[in-house]
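User: I've been trying to design a sequence by hand for this structure and keep getting stuck. Would you show me what you'd pick, starting by listing the structure so we're on the same page?

Assistant: Good idea, let's start from the same input. This is the structure you sent:
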C-alpha cells in the first residue's frame, strides 16, 4: 500500500515539474486516498498539494494543505519541515492579503532556520519577509501619490521590505547564489523605486541586469531594462530612459511578447513626447495602436488614440488630432468608461474650439465633472479614465481642462483663426508640460506634477483593504504613475518543485533502489 501511495505521489511530482498542476493534484489526492503510515511521506504530499493548488490560484485549498502540513510536522517534531510549511503558509497568506498572519509565519520560519543554523532557510525566510512587506505596502498605496510621497504606513512597510531584502542579499552573497542575488536585486530595486530612491533603484536594477545576462535570462533582462527606464524617467533623464525602453522593445520582440511590446511602444511614445520629438512619439504610438487592435485590447486602443491626439495637437495636425480624439471618445462609450468619456468629450470640445467648429465648452460635460468632483473634499474638478495593461503603464499627458478653457478664450480674443490654427496648437499642448518642475528629494531630482492631479491607475487588488477608487475622481496626472509598473514586477516563481528541500526516501521493495518524493518550498522568487 505504501509503495502504491509513494508511486502515485512521485507521478504527481513529475507532472507538477512538467507544469501540469491539475493532473498532479489528481495523483496527489489519489495517493492520499490510498494512504500511508509514513507521516513524513504524507507531510511531503500535503506540501506538494499546497504548492500545486497555489499554482492553480486556488489559494483556499493551498492554505488548507499547507496547514495540514504544518500540523503534521509539529506532531512528528520535524523542525525543518515546520520551517518550510510556515514559509509556504506565509506566502499563501500574503497573496490573500492577510499580511499580519503572513508575518507571524515568516517569523517562525526565520526563527527555526536561525536556531538550526540553516543559512539557506534564513535567506528564504528573509526574502519572503521582504515580499510580504512589499505586497502590504503596495496594497495600501494611495495611487494619487508619486513614488516617495505615499502615506507613512506605506513607506514604513516598504522600508521594512528593503531591510529584509538587504539582509537576504547579504546571506545569498555569502552563499555565492547568483540566481538568488538577481531576484533580490530586482525586488530591492522595485522597493527603492516606490520609496522614491531612484538612484538606488537604478543601482539595484543594473545589478539585476548584469546577473540576468550571466544566466541568459532574457525575460529578467527585459524586466530590468524596463525598470531602469522607469527610474530614469523620474530622474528626468529622458534620453537615457528611451534607450532602456528600446532594449525592452527589442527583447519583447525576441520573446514574442506582444503585450510587453505594446507597453514598450507606449512608453517610448510618451518619452519622446517629453523630449518634444512628436513625430517619433506618433510613430511609437501608432505601433502601440496596431498591437492593441491585434490583441483586441479596446482600452489600450483608446489610450493609444488619446496619446496620438495629443501628439498631433502639438504638431498642429488638427484634423488628425480630432480624428483620434473622437475615436477615443467612441471607445470610452463602448467600454462603459464614464470618467474616460468625460475626458474625451472635453478633448473633442477643446479641438473644436481650435478648429473654429465651436467656441463654447460643453456645459453638460462641465456640470458632470463638477458632480464627480466633490468626492475629494471639495477639490477642483478633475477627470480620470481607466486603463488596460495596468502593470505596463508609463504616463499620460492630460490637459488641465479649466486652464485649457481659459487659454482658448484668451487666445481667441488675441489671434485670428489662420494664425491660431497654425501656431497655437503647440502652445496648447506644450502648456500641459509647464506645470511640471524638478523637485529635490534627497540627492535625486524627480520630475513632479505640481498641479495636484491624481494618478488614475486602478487600485491594486492585493489585500483586503478597500479605498475609494481613483477612477471615481481625479484628473489624469502628468505621469500615469510609474509605481504601477512595479505592481506585477515580482514575476514570482512560486512553489518551485525543483527547490531543494528535505528529501524523503523509502525503499519501494526488497532490493529496490530508494525512491524519493521532495517536500519543497513554496518560494516567492523574482
Amino acid at each position: 500500500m505504501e509503495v502504491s501511495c509513494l508511486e502515485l505521489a512521485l507521478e504527481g511530482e513529475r507532472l507538477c515539474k512538467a507544469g501540469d498542476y491539475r493532473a498532479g493534484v489528481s495523483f496527489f489526492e489519489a495517493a492520499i486516498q490510498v494512504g500511508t503510515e509514513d507521516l513524513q511521506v504524507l507531510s511531503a504530499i500535503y506540501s506538494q498539494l499546497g504548492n500545486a493548488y497555489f499554482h492553480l490560484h486556488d489559494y483556499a485549498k493551498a492554505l488548507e494543505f499547507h496547514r495540514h502540513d504544518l500540523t503534521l510536522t509539529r506532531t512528528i517534531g520535524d523542525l525543518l519541515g515546520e520551517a518550510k510549511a510556515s514559509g509556504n503558509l506565509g506566502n499563501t497568506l500574503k497573496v490573500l492579503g492577510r499580511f499580519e498572519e503572513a508575518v507571524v509565519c515568516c517569523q517562525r520560519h526565520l526563527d527555526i532556520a536561525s536556531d538550526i543554523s540553516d543559512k539557506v532557510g534564513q535567506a528564504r525566510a528573509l526574502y519572503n519577509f521582504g515580499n510580504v512587506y512589499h505586497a502590504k505596502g503596495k496594497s495600501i498605496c494611495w495611487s494619487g501619490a508619486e513614488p516617495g510621497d505615499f502615506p507613512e504606513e506605506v513607506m514604513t512597510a516598504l522600508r521594512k521590505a528593503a531591510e529584509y531584502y538587504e539582509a537576504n542579499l547579504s546571506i545569498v552573497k555569502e552563499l555565492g547564489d547568483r540566481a538568488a542575488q538577481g531576484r533580490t536585486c530586482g525586488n530591492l530595486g522595485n522597493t527603492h523605486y516606490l520609496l522614491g530612491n531612484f538612484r538606488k533603484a537604478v543601482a539595484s536594477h543594473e545589478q539585476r541586469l548584469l546577473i540576468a545576462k550571466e544566466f541568459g535570462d532574457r525575460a529578467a533582462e527585459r524586466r530590468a531594462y524596463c525598470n531602469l527606464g522607469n527610474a530614469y524617467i523620474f530622474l528626468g533623464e529622458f534620453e537615457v530612459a528611451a534607450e532602456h525602453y528600446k532594449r525592452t522593445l527589442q527583447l519583447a520582440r525576441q520573446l514574442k511578447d506582444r503585450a510587453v511590446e505594446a507597453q514598450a511602444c507606449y512608453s517610448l511614445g510618451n518619452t519622446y513626447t517629453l523630449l518634444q520629438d512628436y513625430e517619433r512619439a506618433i510613430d511609437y504610438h501608432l505601433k502601440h495602436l496596431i498591437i492593441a487592435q491585434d490583441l483586441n485590447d479596446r482600452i489600450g486602443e483608446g489610450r493609444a488614440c488619446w496619446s496620438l491626439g495629443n501628439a498631433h495637437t502639438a504638431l498642429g495636425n488638427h484634423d488628425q488630432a480630432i480624428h483620434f480624439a473622437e475615436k477615443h471618445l467612441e471607445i470610452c462609450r463602448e467600454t462603459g468608461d464614464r470618467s474616460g468619456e468625460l475626458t474625451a468629450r472635453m478633448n473633442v470640445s477643446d479641438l473644436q474650439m481650435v478648429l473654429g467648429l465651436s467656441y463654447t465648452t460643453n456645459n453638460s460635460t462641465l456640470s458632470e465633472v463638477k458632480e464627480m468632483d466633490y468626492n475629494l473634499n471639495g477639490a477642483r474638478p478633475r477627470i480620470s479614465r481607466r486603463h488596460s495593461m495596468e502593470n505596463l503603464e508609463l504616463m499620460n499627458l492630460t490637459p488641465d481642462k479649466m486652464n485649457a478653457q481659459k487659454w482658448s478664450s484668451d487666445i481667441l480674443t488675441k489671434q485670428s483663426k489662420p494664425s491660431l490654427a497654425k501656431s497655437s496648437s503647440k502652445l496648447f499642448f506644450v502648456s500641459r508640460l509647464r506645470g511640471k518642475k524638478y523637485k529635490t528629494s534627497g540627492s535625486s531630482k524627480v520630475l513632479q506634477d505640481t498641479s495636484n492631479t491624481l494618478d488614475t491607475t486602478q487600485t491594486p487588488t492585493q489585500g483586503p483593504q478597500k479605498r475609494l477608487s481613483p477612477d471615481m475622481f481625479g484628473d489624469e496626472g502628468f505621469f500615469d504613475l510609474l509605481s504601477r509598473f512595479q505592481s506585477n514586477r515580482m514575476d514570482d516563481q512560486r512553489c518551485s518543485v525543483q527547490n531543494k528541500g528535505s528529501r524523503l526516501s523509502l525503499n519501494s521493495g526488497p532490493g529496490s533502489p530508494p525512491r524519493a518524493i521532495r517536500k519543497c518550498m513554496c518560494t516567492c522568487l523574482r
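That's my pick for every position. To get oriented when you compare it with your attempt: Confidence is low (pLDDT under 50) at residues 358-515. Strands lie at 436-441, 444-449, 502-507, 514-519.
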